[in-house]
Amino acid sequence: MLRIHFTDADLVRTKVAATSDPLWEVVCSLHRLQARRGRWAFAGWHRDSRERLRERGLERVLRRMLVPLVPYAAYFPDFLTPPEAGEGIAGGLEALLDVPQTRVEAELRTLATVRAVPPELRRIAGREGRRELTRAIRGYHDAVIAPYEDRVLAQVEADRAARARTWLDGGMDALLATLSPWLVWDPPVLSIPRYPAVQDLHLGGRGLLLVPVYFSWGNPVTLADPGLTPVLTYPVLSEQDPAGLPGDLGSGAALSALLGGTRAEVLRTASAGATTGELARAAGVSASAASQHTGALRNAGLLISRRHGQRVLHSLTPAGAALLRASGARVRTSAIEV
Fold first, then answer.
1. Residues with Cβ within 8 Å of residue 283, at least 6 apart in sequence
2. Which CATH number characterizes residue 267's domain?
3. Whole-angstrom distance between the N-terminal and C-terminal Cα of the chain?
4. pLDDT (0 to 100) of residue 233
5. What's the CA gap between 6 and 9, in Å, rounded?
6. Is residue 282 included in any domain, yes or no?
7. Cys-Cys with 28: which of 40, 216, 240, 314 at CB 3.0–4.6 Å?
8. What's the average model confidence in pLDDT over 72-81?
9. Which distant-in-sequence residues (6+ apart) come within 8 Å of 217 by Cβ?
10. Cα 286–chain centre separation
């Protein structure tokens, strides 16, 4: 079980990450390649990624370095997900390169208690071995994460919009209570009963950074070292929310169905995040008609729909925002920051 202990100061300082974290996506996607659980939700990505890794000659580095370093187990090294990665893959890899050798060695010893660590993997404690690791991670990211970047960002933005509404409607209590079906919020403790390790994390006024992760599935995850900046990642996709699961991004036939003033208005209104009822009122149509329009926009890869309590919240994908900008329409933005 994981228990995260909050003070009043921690509730004030808890926030949702501004965008996706590429190194957390790398780590969680490596788990998706190894685990059968949830594979159906990522079946297309799993198939395409294996092919890209073969084409780029990355199968050996995947098998000999990345999978042993990030096993689908109760532990993987904290140094793989530095906070600087929140600013982008380049900054994250630079920070990984600068991690002290003593820390890398200590975390590799911890890893050895849950999985065998190949002798050649211990080279990454040194500077040159770490350079090799960062090149491997960058190659892996470019092969299997970057091609899905628009979809990842769209899902993370949709999740942030839903969290912002929850926070405005019910405050931080409501946000923590609805963060994940795996989490239990019993103030002042946030717990994960089925966490694979027994851990108590006392925030002590530092607050908590909530990181939405596209390639995460099931349990939220925190860092093993309680002395590091407190982080809790959680999946933006869930089998409890089928509308948000990965799907076909659409085709030319679907895009052709978008022509018309009503759908254009639906798209413009959704740019700031809107419920089905709000879209219906803005476009002057019934709720059922609005649902049909959002379905067409979603199938074309221009809209993301996420459940928010009893309502469904719709927001733009990067492709939808680009289409509005290209047409000269103003993309509305929300001033909400959670």
1. 262, 265, 266, 269, 289, 290, 293
2. 1.10.10.10
3. 27
4. 96
5. 8
6. yes
7. 216
8. 92
9. 28, 31, 32, 35, 37, 38, 41, 42, 235, 237
10. 33
Question: Is the model more confident about 270 or about 191?
Answer: 191
**Domain boundaries, position 319:** 248-326
Give the integer Cα–Cα distance in Å for 27 and 235.
13
**Two tokens at 255?**
């895009």
Residue 185 shares a structural domain with residue 222: yes
Q: What is the mean pLDDT of residues 170-179?
A: 92
Residue 293 domain-assigned (yes or no): yes
308 vs 165: CA distance, rounded Å: 8
- Tell the residue number behind the tokens 């379905």, with chain if given: 295
Among 31-40, 128-137, 220-229, the minimum mean pLDDT is found in 31-40
Per residue, the 3-state secondary structure of 256-277, as one string, reads: HCCCCHHHHHHHHHHCCCEEHH
Percent of the chain with pLDDT over 70: 89
Judge if 173 and 134 occupy the same domain.
no
